[in-house]
Every structure is written in structure tokens, then in C-alpha cells.
Amino acid sequence: MVTKKKTEAKAEKATPATVGRQELSRRVAQKTKLSQKQVGEVLEATIDTVREVLQEGDEVRLVGFGSLQGTHECGTQRRQSTESSAH
Q1: Across residues 63-84, what is the average pLDDT?
Q2: Is the distance from CB of 84 to CB of 64 less than 8 angstroms?
Q3: Strands of 66-73's sheet, edge to edge?
Q4: Nearest partner of 67 among 79, 59, 75, judged by Cα
Q5: Interatomic CA distance for residues 85 and 22, integer angstroms
Q6: Which pLDDT value is given to residue 85?
Q7: What domains are defined for the chain?
């Protein structure tokens, strides 16, 4: 049985929030035994590595999450995210 309070909470969550690097680091730190600073360093290294892979023209595929692929448009590079259909 769903209570009124839970239904209201879901309705409030209908608008998606944007989570930045700092908030993402904080949430990961809560789930691990790492400090927020350590998680931030790992996150930055991950983002840098993904950027490098895409700039080389390769694809990053994370099963259950999606794929990132670098594309070139008018002399600039754009990252394209494709959500995975496998759950």
C-alpha cells in the first residue's frame, strides 16, 4: 500500500535534478570507505581518461549504463551518449 506521503515525495521528484561533480563525489563517498577528496580525484581521473579515449576516436562502453562516442562536427568534437538498452 502506497501512502500519501510517498506519493507526494514521488511527485516532487518528477523534475530531474542536475548532479554535478561535487555532489556525485559526495554520494560515492557515502557508499564507499573513501573520502570525498579521494573520490573527487578518482572521478577527475575517470573523466580525463574518458575524454582522452573519445578524442582518440574510440568508444567508451559501460555495460548497464551506456556508451560514449566522440563525433566530429564542423571542426569541433562533440560527445554523444547512448543509453544502454540492457538492464
Answers
A1: 69
A2: yes
A3: 59-62, 66-73, 76-83
A4: 59
A5: 28
A6: 47
A7: 20-83 (4.10.520.10)
Grid coordinates standing for 33? 570507505
Which residues touch 27 (CB under 8 Å, ≥6 apart)?
19
Please name the residue that has the C-alpha cell 555532489: 23
Q: What is the pLDDT of residue 86?
A: 47
Of 40 and 1, more confident: 40
Give the chain's count of helices (H) and strands (E). 3, 3
Least confident among 6-15, 43-52, 56-65, 78-87 = 78-87
In angstroms, the Cα distances linking 13 to 1, 18, 37, 87 are: 19, 12, 28, 22
DSSP run (H or E) holding 13: none
59-62/76-83 β-pairing: unpaired
